[in-house]
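The following record pairs a protein chain with its ligand, thymidine-5'-diphosphate.
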Amino acid sequence: MSNLLVTGGAGFIGANFVHYWMENYPQDKVVVLDALTYAGNKANLEPVAKHPNFYFCHGNICDTPLVETLLKEHRIDTLVHFAAESHVDRSITGPDAFIETNIIGTHSLLKAAKKIWLDEGLNKENHRFHHVSTDEVYGTLGPNDPAFSETTPYAPNSPYSASKAASDHLVRAYHHTYGLQTTISNCSNNYGPYHFPEKLIPLVITNILQDKPLPIYGDGKQIRDWLYVEDHARGIDLVLKKGRVGECYNIGGINEWANIDIVKLICELMNEEFARNPSLAEKYPNATKAQQGQAEELITFVTDRAGHDRRYAIDPRKSNGELSYQPQESFETGIRKTLSWYLDNEIWWSAVMDGSYQDWIATQYAQEVTKA
Ligand code: NAD
Ligand code: TYD
């Protein structure tokens, strides 16, 4: 049995991880610490909110005394750190929040973990600080470059990726210098349920449903390597169980797509869904292009993102070999599941954009952990 502290558990990947964990390890205690920024939403945790071993704390990872109290009071042995500012476009217009949360916040967690686990000796021999990072720390690839491996030199290009790279280095240093038992995973682009609709895939889906333009940055030929979010959770689980302390593991499923191709695919699948299921036209009366089987007419090329990385690709051989990691979802099945989820959950995506759902969901929680 384990006691987990999950930071950023009300965000996209953190929430999916918590669902995965509580389903597979219901005997474990899971405490979520989340500041509920615009990207954090208690509604994302609704499926586990009533679980007797689930706790929620509304707080900031930069609040070191709060983190120390949570580690002690819940006798935490495993910290899984998702909390971050995560959107590259926002990091270009407002980098300060990225420095604050991603660098200072990660350092705050490391300091608290060192104090409670190493200096005070709670779970001294048996603890784990797992840091969730990104493939974006490696920079950008040319069309024929080999994929990113764990030994690819860091070359972050955006304020987001630079702040994540800095946090990775701090985690490494706390292992090397103090002996904190750390692991890091660097994952490729995720997609799936609860993905905030500012990111490419959910933006395209929800914009089609509202007949809004689908903005393609630059020529749309930038390449990303996409992984279904539950397969990321499964990868982190394996790193926690089988990963070697002090190591980094790349997680990905060899699934490279140019942005324009993925947007065209979503348009096609959406046209098909509307043709197959006539009730969708009633549910989404504004989606006129999808109703006519012409969602792709919404595609609009716009000015490119500043410093836009051309290609990301993960070489997963280390996690495949050492951890026996294999994603379970193909892109075909994962994207269809994602599409269905958004079609069934208009209440979620329309509300996260206006915030009203958060007021309602705030009344749904039995075990709120208040600030110490
Ligand atoms: P997200 O933006 O959806 O969620 C971030 C969560 O962190 C939100 O719940 C937010 O409220 C919380 N948070 C932000 N600042 C906080 C603070 N100071 N204190 C406490 N909580 C705070 O992000 P995501 O897409 O779920 O990404 C989660 C992690 O995975 C990040 O560390 C990100 O770098 C990493 N990652 C993301 C992807 C991806 O494709 N989205 C890929 C690889 C790695
Ligand atoms: P995004 O989902 O923001 O993830 P990241 O920048 O972390 O990879 O973007 C994925 C790709 O899609 C990226 O190359 C930028 C591009 N993009 C668009 O073309 N249009 C959009 O409206 C958005 C949000 C992204």
